[in-house]
Structures are given as structure tokens and as C-alpha cells.
Amino acid sequence: METIPTPDGKTVRLLYGRKGMLLRVPESAAVLAGRHVEPIENPRQAVAQALADPVGCAPLAELIAARKPASVAVTISDITRPVPNRVFLPPLLEALRAAAVADSQMVIIIGTGMHRPSTAREREALVGGEIQSRVEVIDHVAADPATLVRVSDDPPVSVNRRFAQADFRIVTGYIEPHFMAGFSGGRKGVCPALVDLATIQRFHGYQSLADPRADNGILEGNPCHEIALAVARAVGVDFLFNVAITRDRRLAGIYCGELEAAHLAGCRDVAEWTSSDIDPAAPAFDLVITNGGGYPLDATFYQTVKGMCTALPALAAGSTLLIVSECSEQLGSKAFTELMLRYDNDWRTFLADIEADQDRTGLDQWELQMQARVLARIGLQKLWFAGDGIAPEMQKHIAVTPLLGEGDAQTRAQRAVDEYLAAHPAARVAVIPDGPYTLLRLGR
Question: What is the pTM (predicted TM-score) of this model?
Fold first, then answer.
């Protein structure tokens, strides 16, 4: 995190696209960020050590030797997550080869959930050319029944066939605070990453997200967490390989072993590292400035909603939230774009409609439902948005107050901050430099 003193305040670097964004704020502004974590010095050695001493199960080599699998499936996150696959995949695959699993027996499955398929350039970024030349790499396709297999009838759940039918199943990914499921990683590498549309819709259904426990940092009683965990248990995960990362996206921790035990160990560390405490006597700020998480997360407005929801503990009815997000791929999916245009800022009617028709979960409606949490708290007029990837006219229809006018997003955002402070010189201001990668909590 970069904070630079200036004669009239301080400048804070926020995540924005690939390069970041500098905004000048008052010296008194609170910077809400987790603590600095040192990266692992020797990632390859750390991976080998973690595989040999996992949490809650025997070492990977012993598990493979006992099972003698004819096929091994390894899942990875898609391009929307900044997972350092190219750091840990080579030593992980080497460990499998050392345990007598040939490249031809392996498949790497990109857990797309309902996101679009990966492009050739994205696969290169995800795993690199050397791995692709040796190991089959495929996308999960939730909408193609031929690629799925039923693993549960009550409720009905279908999962990626290649994963479910593999003799040994490894789930990888990384752990961060998650605005619906409490934390990412663990069971989310199966659900929603590898499941069918109906299961994804149930995971994101109206009732699940209407529960206040479907929130950052909460696992106990969280319906999203419980649904995903039940699916992962039904499929069966033989080995988990999760990581935590630093602000510059290097390895900070490795959590591998039994699905639930290893994931919980990682969640405990990530909660400690990413948390920023707010004074419980005065939790709300007048102006909160945050972001969509930088590339690749802020490539779409769909993912930008995570940054909005992360700020909720710092917001009250009179607060203003400014979120900056590049949105180089605009709103996101066709379904999400059509949903936003159909309701055209009328989020109250949207909520009434989905509450009245809870048996049907429209594709991507969950993201607008989560955005509505922020809108219900502060109102559309106080949810400010600055981004360069969405056409100005489109920004007027996506349930935000767009900061339009002359200049790029940084210029427009800075102008809005300066004008707000000129009108409210005593305002309490907070900045969340790491956006959705931060866990805000009331001080203990």
C-alpha cells in the first residue's frame, strides 16, 4: 500500500486496472487496510514442504501411492482471480510425476462457474505454454449437459464430468474475504466453479443472499458457504491446495491437505492479515473511497460490486461511497448487461420482483441483489462511480451516480473528492486502498 504525504494532505494509491490510481485525500483520512505480509522467500521449496506436511491428511505422495489413480484432475481458478498458478502449478505437477502420475493421466480444469470461457491469451497467463504442451487444459462449461454428471438428487446437483469421474481430485485456488461466501477458496473451487447452472442459481438464490450471514468473513451459518460445502462433500475432494497472496500478488501462505481443515487454517490467517478495524463507537464515515480490486477483478462492473459491499461496515444512511473501477470489459456477461438495462436504476422494483419469484433465479441477478445492499444503505445518489471502460451513456443506467465530465477516471474522481471536501470541510473520510481484498470489522 502506498501513501505519500503532500503539503495539503496525503496521496493514496488504489487498485485500478493494471497500473493503479493515485488520489489525494486529507491528512486526517483513515486508511483502512490490512497489515503488511512478507512473501514466501522460496515458493518452490515452500510448495514441496506443504505437500509433504499437509493439514489434516497424509502427504500427497502417500495418498497417490495408496490410491494408484489412473486419472488425476486438478482445478484452477479462471482469469478473474489473481491466483499465482504459474508459481505453484509446476512444483505441484512435478510432485504428481514423482508419484508416478504421467502427464497423460492429468487434466487441468479451469473452474469458470458461469463466467465466459478462457481465451488462448488467458490460458497462457493462467498456466503458461510449457504446462499446456504437456497436460490437457480444459474449461468447465456449466451450460453443456454433456460435460456434466449428476452427483446428488436432493437437491439435484451436476458437476463437471472430468472432475467427478477422476480417480483423484485436487482443488486449487486462493483465499480472500468474499462478500457472499465469507471467504473464497476451499469448497468454492467446486461450487460454483465446477457445477451446473441450477446449482449456481441455488448458491446465489434470493433467500441465500437475503440472509445477513452471507457476508464477508462469516462462515458459521452462512448459507452460501453451507451450500458450497455440501456440494464439495458430495463430489469428494481428495486434496486441497490453497494459497494466500500479498498485495503485490506473491505467495504469502500455502494451505493444503484435507478440504475443510486446510481451508479453515487459511481463512484464519487471511482474516488476520486482511482485517482493518473500525471504531465501534463511530463506525460510519461521511465519504468512503474504494475500488474494484484492480486487474483482473475490476475488468467488469459485475465484479466491481464486491468492492462496494466490502465498504458496507463503514457506511451509514448519510454516507457517500466513491468506487473507482476500470471495467475494461464493460459490465460483464450479456445476461448481466441486459438485467441492468431492463431495470434501469430501479433496484427497488428488481428486489420486489425477485422476492416474489423465488423459485426462479435469473442468471447473474445475484450481483444486482448484492449491489442493492449498498443502495438500500446510502441510496443511488450517494453511490458514486468512476471508470474509463464503460461508455458514459451506459453508466447512467447501472444503479450508480456516474462521475462524468472532462478527464479520465482519476481526474473525475479527484475532482469529485475535492468538491465534496470543499462543501464538507469537517467530513470524516476513509480510504480502502485494497478494495474487496479487505475485511472491515468493528474494533475489538
Answer: 0.92
